[in-house]
Amino acid sequence: MEDDLREAAAHGIFDPFNEHLDHLDCIVTPNGDTILHIHVSCARVVSTNFIKQVLVNCAKLLSQENSDGNTPLHIAARHGHTDAAEKLIKQAEALHDAIDIQSGEVVTKKKMAAVRDMLRKVNKKKETALHVACSTKWKKFGSCESKEDPHFTCSANDSGETPLYLAVDNTCTNIVAELLNNPNSQSLEYGGPDDDTVLHMAVERWDTEVVLMLLEKQSSLAAKKGRYGWTPLHLSAYEGSSSMVATLLDKDKSIASITDGTEKFTALHMAALQGFKHAMNEIISKCPDFCKLTDRRGNNILHSAVYSQNEEVLKAILENSSLISLIIGKDDRGNTRVHAFMALNLPLPSFIIDGDTDAFILWKKLYYNIPKDFTIKVENNSSQWIDNQHSLGFGISGRPSDPSIPVVDSNNLNAPISKSLSEFMETNLEDVSD
Which residue has the higher pLDDT, 204 or 85? Predict the structure, then answer.
């Protein structure tokens, strides 16, 4: 494409192309961009008259792709040119009007088919124009596209992202609403990359409005596991969003019992480990039956609170009289929560020293009776497990890590549990149970 023609296309000036009418489709850049691609991508204000002149003279340009497989409609979507998109759609209809009037055939179905073909055309990344619009946050454009072809359910692109997923990711609420409410919404794909769902993404975006919309349309999403077996509730607990936790639990309280795919953590474990007291309390108050669940090592939420080294979280659990039995429970290695607390060389907080409720008294009793030279029995791969906790927040790979979460020093935890401590624990637990 010569420079003067490129300049004319960019500014929407058609006159220089009058002498090239028989080969407009051959005027392309090294990237395969036609004069329509150039105009839609470069013009600040798209000239619908220029688009009409081009397509009247060369209808082929309507769907001609560049080297990336993008049509002019893809480019219009990338730049948010709603007027250009509408003109391209109308020109597709008008071209079939002219053809069918001459042939005497019924035009409606052919016009609809022409528009559908254009809207459903994918580039080399398997993206339709709607994918592009959703990924570039052009909300009005995406809404226009979803209305034009309401019966089409777009599949995922090469990255595993559907238009619905991209709309949620980019907080295009109006497009999400259009897609959920269109006549073919029952066929929508709610998945996303890495086994996540659109609800996982809505939770990551802290978008309560979209979360409610998705749950209203597809309530089963609340229990769906994504990466590493995390449900949306795991994710909201990890990020400390108490309002999101409440929103999810109000729809389905049973999801609080779901464990992840690696450590068998519930969302409550995660909230406690991350030190998010409000998210933790939300789960405790709404789902009291699930507060004593343990992970794969037999740890309950009191263990999690100890490992978080967050005094507010620990205090909140100990102040809940219904959870006092958590103090004396042992994990799979025979350790109580108080032993884990001592292994971290943590001083007793003032709220425990000064506390006079049963939980605080029991904690102090266990704490002061533990031998100073005790050792803690852990499994052989404890060092690896603890290192994972340190680097990933709490032993799960893939989600955002929090290296500030303190962990037990694995160098001091590898010796087998002593006989004297075993005897003490048995005696002490018998005393407590009495």
Answer: 204
